[in-house]
Specification:
Helix 2 links the parallel strand 2 and strand 3. The longest helix has 25 residues. The chain starts with a strand and ends in an 8-residue tail after the last helix. It is globular and about 50 Å long. Helix 1 packs across helix 17, helix 4 packs antiparallel against helix 20 and helix 5 crosses helix 18. With about 450 residues, the chain is α/β, with parallel strands linked by helices.
Length: about 450
């Protein structure tokens, strides 16, 4: 089975390959094609994978190419993890937004809109090529903003593109762990959009254990989200929000923390990964050791400003191991081998949430089999969550309209309508600022 990884020179590719190395069952991935626009990054990551595979019998063969069409031909699965504009683009997203006093995070608020505007045209081109060159392939999208990009690709690939994210997986795992339950045996009632969802229940043997957690202040305050949001706020919500909702519920504090930080997250990662790839130019550098050291630093500093604002302290050791690669492998296994499973995924709504149309991509538990991912019926969201989901989905639709038409007015509208951008004039200045620093937004007119 052939897996093509787009963004194959990306830093997190070894996580995916590591998951593949642990899969020895029949029908596994036997050939990995890495595609990237940067040959030096491809070379660096290929070296890391070679050291990973040392001593592993029947390790998947790895080849690398800068030719997109060559990479896609004959693929059974396409894993998309591209970053249009690179980490320099992400740092610019943050800088332009923070100068206007609004959030520049890569998937939330102004930064997420800017990232979406320059990513959607590229993702749509990829989707069209997949439809032409590998029509039977399944596309697994991890490219951010994951829900928005998955929806853009679904207009050309239908349900054969599925978005994944590790945030709901990590959240469900932490809740189960603090309740003393096995995460593999728990049903997580989670619903929303990517980076905008809530756990409303966690069932073990048919019993909802979330009320027990919400009723116990000590338990509730003992894990990441309890520390991040505070016990009182979680009890008021009656649910556990995805960590990215901290940007909404504590927006002023988050913006202030990012403005006062020595570096934004994008600038930090840009400098960190520049050091990694520079070190990898030394042919004698221990590739795997250098990569793993860099990964550990990256994970430990994740959402550091938010945790500092909340006084949440350091991340727990159990939360430093990633997770999206496990979701990707479980999804591929379920489809390729008809190993039926349940995963929280980004898929077209169909009739799951009545407040959204059938083509809107949402993030919900799905039953997965050889025919793809099928969203599970969920209870309606409470009014406060419905309002937020509908508002952000409307913004995503304006981003898609701008990317499709090149309309600058639609781009301004996308920024202006976002709950975290509170001024049409700010929205206009954001569009001006982003078009100045991003050549990829030259299509807006």
């Amino acid at each position: 089975m052939k897996l093509t990884i787009l963004g194959g020179g990306g830093f997190r590719v070894p996580l995916v390959y590591g998951a593949l190395l642990q899969d020895h069952a029949e029908g596994r991935v036997t050939h990995v094609i890495l595609h990237d626009l940067d040959p030096a990054r491809l070379s660096a990551v290929t070296r890391v994978l070679a050291e990973q595979a040392a001593g592993v019998p029947d390790a998947p063969e790895v080849t690398a190419t800068t030719d997109l069409d060559e990479a896609l031909r004959g693929a059974d699965f396409v894993f998309s993890a591209i970053r249009v504009g690179g980490l320099e683009g992400r740092a610019n997203d943050e800088r332009v937004a923070l100068a206007e006093g609004v959030l520049g995070q890569e998937t939330v608020g102004a930064g997420g809109i800017a990232y979406g505007l320059r990513t959607v045209p590229v993702a749509v081109d990829i989707a069209r090529r997949v439809a032409r060159l590998a029509p039977d392939a399944w596309v697994i999208n991890f490219t951010n903003p994951a829900g928005l990009v998955t929806e853009a690709m679904s207009r050309h690939l239908g349900d054969r593109v599925i978005g994944i994210c590790d945030s709901p997986v990590g959240l469900g795992r932490r809740i189960a762990r603090v309740l003393g339950a096995n995460p593999k045996e728990a049903w997580i009632d989670y619903v929303g959009l990517n980076h905008l969802g809530w756990v409303r229940g966690l069932r073990v043997a048919g019993r909802d254990e979330l009320p027990r957690l919400l009723a116990d202040p000590d338990l509730l305050g003992s894990f990441e989200e309890g520390k991040l949001f505070g016990v009182d706020w979680l009890r008021s919500l009656g649910a556990i929000p995805n960590e990215y909702l901290h940007y909404y519920y504590f927006n002023r504090e988050a913006v202030r923390a990012y403005q006062q930080a020595e570096k934004t997250r994008g600038a930090f990662l840009h400098d960190q990964q520049a050091r990694f790839y520079a070190e990898m130019r030394n042919p004698d550098a221990p590739a795997w050791k250098v990569w793993d050291r860099t990964r550990a630093e990256r994970e430990a500093t994740y959402m550091a400003e938010n945790r500092e604002t909340a006084g949440a302290g350091e991340r727990d050791e159990d939360d430093l191991s990633g997770g999206y690669e496990k979701v990707a492998l479980a999804l591929m296994r379920a489809i390729a081998r008809d190993e039926r499973t349940t995963l929280i995924l980004n898929v077209r709504n169909q009739r799951t949430l009545s407040v959204l149309d059938t083509d809107a991509v949402i993030e919900v538990p799905c039953l997965v089999d050889a025919n793809g991912a099928h969203p599970v019926t969920v209870d309606p969201l409470p009014d406060h969550a419905t309002g937020l989901v509908c508002a952000v989905k409307a913004v995503e639709r304006e981003v898609l309209a701008a990317a499709d038409s090149g309309s600058r007015a639609s781009a301004v509208k996308a920024f202006a309508l976002h709950p975290l951008v509170d001024s049409v004039n700010v929205a206009r200045r954001l569009v001006e600022g982003y078009t100045e620093v991003h050549p990829g937004l030259a299509y807006l007119r």
